[in-house]
Amino acid sequence: MKEITKPSVLLISIDALKPEFVFESEKIGVKLPNLRKFFVEHGTYASKGVKSVFPTFTYTCHQSIITGTHPATHGTYTNKVFDPEGKHLDAWYWYVSDTVPTLWERAKENGYVAASVAFPTSVSADTDYNIPEFWRDGSALDSKLINAVSRPQGIVKEAEKEIGQIPGGLDLSLDGDHKRYATALWMLENKIKPNAKDKPFFMTTYFASYDETAHDRGVYSKEALEAIEELDKFVGELLKKAHEIANDNVVVCVVSDHGTINNVGDIRPNTLLYKKELIRINDDGKITDWKAWCQRSGGVGQIKLKDRNDKVTRKVVEEILKQLIEDSDSGIMEVITGEEALAMRKGFPEADYVLIAKPGYEVREDITGEYYNPEPTQKAQHGYAEEIPDMRASFYIEGINIPKNKDISELELIDIAPTLAHIMGFSMPTAEGRNILL
Description:
alpha/beta; 34% helix; globular; Gyrase A, domain 2; 19% strand; Alkaline Phosphatase, subunit A
């Protein structure tokens, strides 16, 4: 048996975790002892946070985390497939990028056992073990579906004999995260540990409940803070298990995809398109035809024309957008073209126009009713422009050869993949970020 010299790596994503929860925890009233002890006192961290990508939406961001590239490069521009007529039955971008390699793929190529539990955009990832985030209806049937797309097939059924039903992506509750935590521990103990004497591992996992609770209750609500405190416990236990399995030859990295902010109201561009007869619906409210549609991504909306050569529709849309920009109460901060979005922010390359909302004004897809709703559908949201401080994500890392109590101040989301690749002894040739530990 040869000695393992390469460090193992465990990457944990906590959806919407803002840096302030760790660095201003006493002010906020939240206790995160594991993040503070293991990653601030004994690790390296970014006190000013991580500049996310555009838009600051979950699936877009996670694809950037795992590939080190911007959305325009990896191809996941938002959470859901653009689908005004609902032909794809509310399909999300569950799958890995088919344009650039992932950390899982590169780790496996370089002698690592690659594994993942519930990580967004992980369906069809080239791993040894993978239980991806995937769903259709939220029922027990989802277990069969996840089992079918897992690697190897049958791993979900095997795990559920010990830990009970694994949650699909529609269960974003704290109870769902308890089950994700149990699944991650099961993966470490039953799939990673048996290989630990021969190979290092790279494993990812994900927790969603803080983000979901913030959506429902607010960023600083009692329920949301309780969720973060519980996730901190999960981090501590997973860290200990990873160190135990790897005999301390391991690096644990905790990140988030974006921040979050409390909303003040909804803005609904499709109501304006509908009033100009660019969207048609039947008596049941179902779309029968459309000439222009605004797809939401939280604080951003992309507008596409069904026929990009339709000059009449384009003129009407541009008149609407001009009025929104001139109206200081519209909730719109900026309107850019798809070409400008690609050049300026490396996102939405296929859009005709991109609406960037003011902080707190969430874009929704309602077709009828008033443009502005002062009672927001969700109490908190993200997706807003990546430059907004409240959209900053988190980065904490500890373990072998990682400097202790070192503040690197800030980095970009696309820096995470090349940094972890460097730790594991290989590169990400397609990455657009950099190794921030040099």
